[in-house]
Write a structure and sequence with these properties.
Length: 157
């Protein structure tokens, strides 16, 4: 037996899965910290603002605040403050929902679309550079496996 095989047999699978989780978490935190720093330095913005603009970029007709917070998996209160600042900057507009005085749609303005396009291009290039040691087929395989795992975990809840 090779040393790797004998070590695998000597420990329960739970230990290896724990190590995997910790490595995924460490790697994710490192990448996220780097993205936060670059967004702040190069665009004077934050990752949460980028995430809101990214979500809105996929919904040209706009989204209700409740749906936006659901997509981002954060509270309405967190999203409201971010949207307020994006409105102040002219990147986002609130539009009344006909027949529902309490609700409004939030959507990117043309200025916001342009700014998000600039940020998204840089964001993609940064991630590509950070992950350039992973070839395309590995990236596809990792993504498929993580998607599968996420689906399995959601079925269990």
């Amino acid at each position: 037996m090779t040393p790797e095989v004998s070590q695998i047999a000597a420990e329960p699978a739970s230990k290896d899965r724990l190590r995997l989780w910790l490595r995924l978490l460490k790697t994710t935190r490192h990448i996220e910290a780097e993205l936060r720093d670059r967004l702040r330095t190069e665009f004077g913005t934050t990752l949460p603002r980028f995430d809101v603009m990214a979500a809105l970029s996929r919904h040209a007709d706009g989204m209700k605040m409740s749906k936006l917070s659901g997509v981002l998996r954060v509270s309405n209160g967190n999203v409201t403050g971010i949207v307020d600042r994006l409105v102040d900057d002219g990147f986002v507009v609130r539009v009344a929902v006909p027949g529902d005085r309490r609700a409004s749609l939030v959507r990117l303005t043309p200025k916001g679309q342009g700014e998000f396009a600039r940020q998204a291009t840089a964001h993609e290039a940064w991630l590509d550079a950070m992950l350039d040691t992973i070839d395309q087929s590995e990236a596809v395989a990792f993504a498929q496996r993580l998607d599968s795992l996420a689906h399995e975990l959601m079925e269990d809840t």
